[in-house]
Design brief:
By secondary structure, this protein is an alpha+beta fold. It contains two helices and eight strands, in the order E-H-E-E-E-E-H-E-E-E. It has helices at residues 22-33, 84-93; strands at 12-19, 36-41, 46-51, 57-63, 75-80, 97-104, 110-115, 121-126. An eight-stranded mixed β-sheet has the order 2-3-4-1-5-8-7-6, covered by helices on one side.
């Protein structure tokens, strides 16, 4: 069995959509895009990992609650960085804002939601 390659620095490693009505939106993308949902336990409720027909995880559809409270209802890209702390320091130096995190995402990985000087929102992700 081969070990999956770590995500490449500078690439978009994942996308999430955080919304108040995750079940409705999950069903929408299941019907419109052909994605298959898998429940992901969030401790009292489930978010959803959405996969392509061949089973490849492609995105998340998440509830706007818990740690995701206050995130805007838009697709959130996760940009892979080598050093999250260094990237966050550069974000602040260049006029960006930290909106949420940094937080652990398991296996030593960490991420943080930022806003760039133009107001666009993205997440920075450091693999474990």
């Amino acid at each position: 069995m081969s070990t999956p390659e770590p995500p490449k620095i500078g690439t978009i490693g994942w996308v999430d959509l955080t919304v108040p009505n995750a079940e409705e939106v999950r069903d929408f993308y299941q019907e419109v895009a052909g994605w298959t949902p898998q429940s992901l336990d969030m401790g009292g409720y489930s978010d959803f990992v959405m996969s392509t027909p061949d089973g490849t995880g492609i995105s998340g559809v998440c509830h706007a609650r818990g740690a995701n409270t206050g995130l805007p209802p838009q697709w959130l890209i996760y940009i892979v960085v080598a050093d999250l702390d260094a990237s966050l320091a550069r974000c602040a130096e260049r006029g960006g804002k930290i909106l949420a995190g940094p937080r652990s995402s398991g296996g030593g990985a960490r991420f943080c939601v930022i806003q760039d000087p133009a107001g666009a929102v993205a997440a920075l992700y450091q693999a474990g």
